[in-house]
Fold this sequence. Notes:
Elements: H1 11-24, H2 32-39, H3 43-55, E1 59-61, E2 68-70, H4 72-82, H5 86-102, E3 105-112, E4 115-122, E5 138-139, H6 144-150, H7 155-161, H8 177-190, E6 193-196, E7 203-211, E8 217-226, H9 235-252, H10 257-260, H11 265-274
Helix pairs in contact: 1-3, 2-3, 5-9, 8-11
Amino acid sequence: MEKTKRKYTIKSLARGLQILDVLAQTDHRWGVTELSRHINADKSLVYRTLSTLSSLGYVEQDPASRKYTLGLKIIELTGRTLRRLELFTVAKPVLKELSRTTGETAHLAIMVKDHMIYLDTEEVDRPFNLNTGMGLPVPLHSSAVGKALLACLSETEVDQLLSAHLQRFTDKTIVGLSRLREELCRIAAAGYAVDDEETYPGVRCLASPIWNHYGRPVAALGVSGSTHRVTVDLVPILARDVTKAAAAISARLGYSEHVAEKQPSLLEENKRQGERASGYR
């Protein structure tokens, strides 16, 4: 007589995955009581599960409201999964060539919520190592990859992504929204963004947006290096290489001049305003 296979379920694990599924379905932050009612589970068990998930980085608790949302560990895992998608496959050879051509570390980054994360990196054999681990959050307003994408978005989208008080990382970080908007105008006109020691002292980065076949910005391609190597005089040369590489990836994703006409109006307005602000500051 054939034995029936038993199905084993670890209740605590199932409860944890159920909680993650609920948190992933909305941007709404959940309290312990609210969440326990939603999944029909004991409040104390939900609290212990959330505490465990929080200690491992899978959920985060807002200090003010004490409510929970997904944590950066989930973003890290998402980043690893995204490596298998078309963007990663298409961009990989271009990323390698960009690093080889420029002699600097090249990055491919995507936007996740209100941060950028690195999807792929090509390091150079130099005594310079920028902390660009997969899944680590990269600020939008101070990084080249972040500003490159912000310059492509509508004013409403930018306002939704940025808070009124931008975090300062160095004495060169742009922390005023008005000044940042002026910077985005220049970026839109030039086609590339520069992080001039705005995130890390002694590090200068350049980046250009990558567009998909719908004419939407989906990623940013950039290079980073020491200010001793990536000098101000070298910026226009590296910018040419970066924008050319980003355009090559965009073309392989189906982007063309035809869909360029469908870009948000702010991008065109940024370009017009940026044309009045010539050069790299």
